[in-house]
């Protein structure tokens, strides 16, 4: 708040202020405090004004004093709102005059007591003045973008900006200048949002044109005929966007570096050329159509619904890379399967899910292998809202919704003795057990020995934090590119050093064969055999020596790794992904002296398929030789509760197997701010139960 980027206010009553407003108001009025900066700092936090010492001091809560913010700001506002019940016309008139607000007798005697208070506060502290003032003073100037930020817009942290063509590098200066006269147009669409056709009442021609375009695409029945149209919420970074202009829509996988190899982009699925149908200035709930919008402005764009899903980059040049995607607020973890009650409405459900996916940046829609349509949401309240929007707005059909499905993960843990009398004896017996698994392929040509061990929690956390780094690194290796970005290599080196420090001695970092699932998970495959493979810490272009390449097991390496990936993706407990498991390969032998005839191949299939299946089953059996656990996701929630019902809140959280992390008294009130975590599977109707109990 001291920095001016926090406003306190009420949109309903039309007032708002920042701390600087009251710092200026009280400057020179507190004896001994003449510095507005000191007053601004003291207005927020555990500070109070001492009339005896004529100074602002800390420790208001310890000394039982009112914080300065409560004393100078909140008390005055509460007194004004208290006049609503008192209906004290004389006091209202007096306060209004002192605040420089003129109110007539009719307003002061209005039947609704909030009307004179609303007039007083909105005239004294108008929300539009405070909001626009904060925007001007806090929001960065569009022409003041730094060089580093411009580069980060054009390429991710794991990419090398120097590897882009010269035409792409020139775009950095265009973004930094934010020049409306530039020939190179750059626009970023941050989201698609629905609007009622009534909001476009002043743009009848534009509305008819949008409805016609949607009807031509076959989506008119689901959108235009039902009162809503999607617009793109966008910002112009360079050039001037004009209605009727032809621009390129750059998909997230588009790479301008491929232009040098193939200048013909007509067949590129990630590059689409479209015509800008309409432009709007967003005026609250209303839209004002315009012909052009210069750089530095935020606009609404019509006609992009069929080419933009959630976010996109628009440009007049094909050398512009797509902007880096916006970070997710949270990962959707609550999923349900939806289907129409009348199977004939399936096409409407599919169109409705597509529109919901466009309108909500936090929702995910997937089609399972079984054909089920699955909706992934952030939580119970978010799910209820999505189902309501589907039924009432986007699909307008009755739905059957399954019970919520919560994703789990499977893991193993160190042995825990159950006996209180002789725990050491149990641990010793467990150590003597042989937990390795030895398997052979059906044709007995390949033999392998596997062991599963749990990974420490800090290793799992480190791998989780570096999931995107591993994903980008192995994608780079799979494409066989020779110029790995230096930033990505630095991140891999840092990850390797950290793993070297925290991995146990039984899991040497330099023997890691693969990560899983999907090559970027928290499970490891460690090779402790004499087989020599390419290190995961080296670039894919580093060759093996001639002797290693002649190893008869080399052609089957990918089959072995694919078996590990399949096992880590679907564990033995309930086919959920594994987490924090290290599979150690202690033996892998291939007996090429065993003959393989046509009948054997026809019966068991090729050796690569047999190895893949054997590794998959071997990993699962090794997993089951250890103590197994299911890992469930947890919700973190903040709850504000009165002190007299704090015990009831604790009881509700305890019944749902939750855990209290902190409970802090809010200064100047009798309320507690409670932070807790509860299992997602126990969170259904949690908010409703809390409201009933407290």
UniProtKB/TrEMBL annotation:
One of its GO terms (biological process) is cytosolic ribosome assembly. CDD domains: aeEF2_snRNP_like_IV, EF2_II, EF2_snRNP_III. Residues 629-694 form the Elongation factor EFG domain. The keyword Protein biosynthesis applies. Keywords: Elongation factor, GTP-binding, Nucleotide-binding, Protein biosynthesis. PANTHER family: ELONGATION FACTOR-LIKE GTPASE 1, TRANSLATION ELONGATION FACTOR-RELATED. This is Putative translation elongation factor. It comes from Anopheles marajoara. The lineage of its organism: Eukaryota, Metazoa, Ecdysozoa, Arthropoda, Hexapoda.
């Amino acid at each position: 708040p001291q920095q001016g980027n926090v406003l306190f206010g009420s949109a309903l009553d039309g007032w708002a202020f920042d701390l600087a407003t009251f710092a200026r108001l009280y400057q020179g009025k507190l004896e001994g405090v003449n510095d507005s900066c000191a007053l601004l700092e003291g207005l927020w936090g555990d500070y109070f004004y001492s009339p005896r010492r004529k100074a602002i001091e800390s420790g208001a809560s310890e000394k039982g004093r009112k914080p300065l913010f409560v004393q100078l700001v909140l008390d005055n506002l509460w007194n004004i709102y208290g006049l609503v019940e008192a209906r004290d016309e004389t006091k209202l008139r007096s306060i209004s005059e002192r605040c420089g607000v003129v109110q007539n007798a009719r307003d002061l005697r209005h039947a609704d007591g909030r009307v004179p208070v609303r007039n007083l506060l909105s005239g004294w502290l108008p929300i539009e003045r405070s909001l626009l003032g904060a925007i001007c003073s806090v929001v960065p100037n569009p022409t003041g973008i730094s060089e580093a930020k411009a580069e980060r817009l054009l390429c991710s942290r794991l990419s090398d900006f120097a590897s882009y063509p010269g035409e792409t590098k020139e775009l950095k200066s265009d973004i930094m200048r934010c020049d409306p006269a530039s020939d190179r147009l750059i626009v970023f669409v941050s989201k698609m949002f629905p609007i009622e056709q009534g909001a476009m009442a002043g743009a009848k021609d534009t509305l008819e044109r949008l409805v016609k375009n949607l009807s031509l695409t076959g989506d008119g029945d689901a959108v235009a005929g039902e009162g809503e149209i999607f617009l793109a919420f966008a910002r112009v970074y360079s050039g001037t966007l004009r209605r009727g202009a032809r621009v390129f829509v750059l998909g997230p996988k588009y790479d301008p570096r491929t232009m040098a190899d193939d200048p013909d982009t007509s067949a590129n699925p990630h590059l689409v050329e479209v015509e800008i149908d309409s432009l709007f200035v967003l005026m609250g709930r209303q839209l004002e159509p315009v012909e052009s919008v210069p750089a530095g402005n935020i606009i609404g764009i019509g006609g992009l619904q069929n080419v933009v899903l959630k976010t996109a980059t628009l440009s007049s040049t094909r050398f512009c890379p797509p902007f880096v995607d916006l970070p997710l607020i949270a990962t959707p973890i609550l999923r349900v399967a939806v289907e129409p009650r009348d199977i004939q409405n399936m096409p409407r459900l599919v169109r409705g899910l597509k529109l919901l996916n466009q309108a909500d940046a936090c929702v995910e829609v997937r089609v399972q292998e079984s054909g089920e349509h699955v909706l992934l949401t952030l939580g119970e309240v978010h799910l209820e809202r999505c189902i309501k929007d589907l039924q009432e707005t986007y699909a307008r059909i009755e739905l059957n919704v399954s019970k919520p499905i919560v994703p789990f993960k499977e893991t193993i843990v160190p042995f825990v003795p159950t006996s209180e009398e002789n725990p050491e004896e149990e641990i010793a017996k467990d150590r003597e057990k042989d937990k390795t698994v030895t398997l052979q392929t059906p044709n007995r040509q390949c033999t392998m020995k596997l062991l599963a061990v749990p990974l420490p929690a800090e290793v799992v956390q480190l791998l989780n934090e570096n999931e995107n780094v591993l994903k980008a690194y192995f994608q780079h290796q799979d494409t066989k590119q020779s110029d790995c970005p230096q930033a990505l290599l630095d991140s891999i080196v840092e990850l390797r050093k950290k793993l070297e420090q925290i991995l146990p001695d039984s899991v040497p970092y330099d023997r890691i064969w693969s990560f899983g699932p999907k090559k970027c998970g928290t499970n490891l495959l460690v090779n402790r055999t004499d087989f020599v493979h390419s290190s995961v810490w080296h670039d894919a272009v580093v060759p093996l020596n001639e002797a290693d390449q002649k190893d008869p097991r080399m052609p089957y390496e990918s089959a072995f790794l694919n078996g590990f990936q399949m096992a880590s993706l679907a564990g033995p407990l309930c086919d959920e992904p594994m987490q924090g498991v290290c599979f150690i390969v202690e033996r892998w032998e291939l007996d090429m002296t065993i003959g393989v005839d046509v009948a054997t191949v026809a019966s068991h299939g090729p050796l690569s398929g047999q190895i893949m299946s054997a590794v998959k089953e071997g990993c699962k059996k090794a997993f089951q030789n250890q103590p197994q656990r299911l890992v469930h996701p947890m919700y973190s929630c903040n709850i504000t509760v009165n002190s007299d019902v704090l015990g009831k809140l604790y009881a509700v959280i305890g019944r749902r197997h939750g855990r209290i992390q902190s409970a802090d008294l809010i200064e100047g009130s009798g309320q507690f701010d409670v932070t807790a975590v509860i299992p997602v599977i126990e969170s259904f109707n949690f908010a409703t139960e809390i409201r009933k109990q407290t």
